[in-house]
Amino acid sequence: QVQLVESGGGLVQAGGSLRLSCAASGRTFSSYAMGWFRQGPGKEREFVAATSRSGDGTYYADSVKGRFFISRDNAKNTVYLQMNSLKPEDTAVYYCAARQLGVPGYSDYEYDDWGQGTQVTVSS
């Protein structure tokens, strides 16, 4: 099991950028695939991005492809989500998640451990 703590959310104008961080506890961070999900107002939680254990493989939802970038630093036990060209529809609580299997997944049920979430609000 790994404990996850997100940070970096906030209020930003449309077109702006934010970088989310997710710090993980434990010595086995590099064995986990990591993902970012989000849940907007009145919406179901949805996949945003995921990365393989090494960080070489990255995967994105179509809605964020080319604007968001996921990366990880295994030496720092941290995964990041760089969000550029933000739109009002990106407003949501963003969650990071860890998958023990080590292979990135696109569904929230595939992930084992979750952070508490960080709010991102994009104003028009």
Quick structural overview:
By secondary structure, the protein is mainly β.
Q: Could you walk me through the main structural features you see in this protein, from its secondary elements to its overall organization?
A:
With 124 residues, the protein is mainly β. It contains no helices and eleven strands. It has strands spanning 4-7, 10-13, 18-24, 33-39, 46-51, 58-60, 68-73, 78-83, 92-99, 113-114, 118-123. Strands 2, 4, 5, 6, 9, 10 and 11 form a seven-stranded mixed sheet that branches. A hairpin with a 6-residue loop joins strand 5 and strand 6 (58-60). The protein is globular. The termini are far apart. The model has no long low-confidence stretch (mean pLDDT 96).
Topology summary:
Blueprint: E1 4-7, E2 10-13, E3 18-24, E4 33-39, E5 46-51, E6 58-60, E7 68-73, E8 78-83, E9 92-99, E10 113-114, E11 118-123
Parallel strand pairs: 2-11
Antiparallel strand pairs: 1-3, 3-8, 4-5, 4-9, 5-6, 7-8, 9-10, 9-11
Succession of helices and strands: EEEEEEEEEEE
How much of the polypeptide forms β-strand, as a percent range?
A: over 45%
Number of helices: 0
Gross morphology: globular
Task: Note the main sheet.
Answer: 7 strands, mixed
**Ends apart, CA distance between termini:** 39 Å
The overall pLDDT, averaged over residues, is 96
